């Protein structure tokens, strides 16, 4: 009797699992049956918001379903990111984010209860694009190369750099360069790339670390001078600008990326459907052209690519942030 009972329980559990898997596959097969919301953890008007809306529009066209972008800015992206981490894992609430997603909890020094699990709290969907970082200078700063800038700083001249915010990738790479070069170029944090660009063009700060799209017009008309790229290799978006690696700072490599995440537990089939559509979207000529306007290059690949990129940034950037004592305060 006990043996029969065990057999019955085992069969019931197997049937339950089978039904559960069947339900999940059925849901994925019909997905999406209602509008999808893409959360952007920053205010409207910036690069992240614009790129998210570009992908949302294209995703809506391909999936024959409404895809809306909702901005939930605040706390360096933590508010919106945390919101998605707690959303139902059904594929109808997604996160589109740049790479401060990985480092924001570190630089804000948040308790786990006030933040989100960077490595285990989401399902990666796709890395959509990369955005090389560039260091630019006002022509009146008195230097036109990294070597001249470092010499000026070592010679006692006050030199400043703008970033779009404390704890941003731009802040991290600038402080990393400071340490590697043995100088102390003064940080002037802003609330976003736009204000930092405005002030470097006006000469209120000597230099700024930004994304290329934000300064392309000023580089073209000579109102800003390019000094270096933060990627490991030169970018086709500014092929004549050397990297810090080329200039002798071989370990100073920081870039920017963006991508889509879903809440942890989102069905694999749903993630794969989204990944397949978005991989096709990043190849579209119109999308490639529009990304270039924002200083971005299409990426793509399997969900694991984004997962590995996020994990690598968590390790490498985390160490630099800790070593340099970088905070958002």
UniProtKB/TrEMBL annotation:
Signal peptide (UniProt feature, chain positions): 1-26
Pfam families cross-referenced by the UniProt entry: TctC (PF03401)
InterPro entries assigned: BUG (IPR005064), Bug_dom1 (IPR042100), TAT_signal (IPR006311)
Keyword annotations of the record: Receptor, Signal
Superkingdom classification of source: Bacteria
Coiled coil spans: none
Family according to the record: Belongs to the UPF0065 (bug) family.
Protein name as annotated: Tripartite-type tricarboxylate transporter receptor subunit TctC
């Amino acid at each position: 009797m006990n043996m029969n009972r065990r057999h019955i329980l085992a069969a019931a559990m197997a049937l339950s699992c089978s039904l559960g898997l069947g339900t999940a596959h059925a849901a994925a097969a019909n997905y999406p049956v209602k509008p999808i919301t893409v959360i952007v953890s920053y205010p409207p008007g910036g690069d992240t918001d614009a790129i998210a809306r570009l992908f949302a529009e294209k995703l809506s066209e391909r999936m024959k379903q409404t895809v809306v972008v909702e901005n939930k800015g605040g706390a360096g992206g933590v508010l919106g990111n945390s919101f998605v981490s707690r959303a139902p894992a059904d594929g109808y609430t997604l996160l589109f984010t740049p790479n401060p997603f990985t480092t924001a909890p570190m630089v804000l020094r948040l308790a786990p209860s006030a933040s989100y699990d960077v490595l285990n709290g989401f399902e990666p969907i796709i890395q959509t694009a990369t955005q090389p970082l560039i260091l630019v200078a006002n022509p009146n700063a008195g230097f036109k190369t990294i070597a001249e800038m470092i010499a000026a700083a070592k010679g006692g001249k006050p030199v400043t750099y703008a970033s779009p915010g404390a704890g941003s990738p731009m802040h991290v790479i600038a402080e990393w360069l400071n340490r590697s070069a043995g100088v102390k170029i003064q940080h002037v944090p802003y609330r976003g790339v736009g204000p930092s660009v405005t002030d470097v063009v006006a000469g209120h700060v000597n230099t700024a670390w930004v994304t290329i799209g934000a300064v392309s017009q000023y580089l073209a008309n000579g109102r800003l001078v390019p000094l270096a790229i933060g990627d490991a290799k030169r970018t086709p978006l500014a092929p004549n600008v050397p990297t810090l690696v080329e200039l002798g700072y071989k370990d100073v490599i920081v870039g920017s990326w963006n991508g889509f995440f879903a809440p942890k537990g989102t069905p694999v089939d749903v993630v794969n459907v989204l990944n397949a559509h978005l991989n096709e979207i990043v190849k579209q000529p119109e999308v490639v052209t529009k990304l270039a306007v924002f200083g971005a290059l299409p990426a793509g690949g399997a969900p694991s690519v984004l997962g590995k990129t996020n994990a690598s940034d968590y390790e490498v950037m985390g160490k630099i942030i800790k070593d340099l004592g970088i905070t958002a305060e």
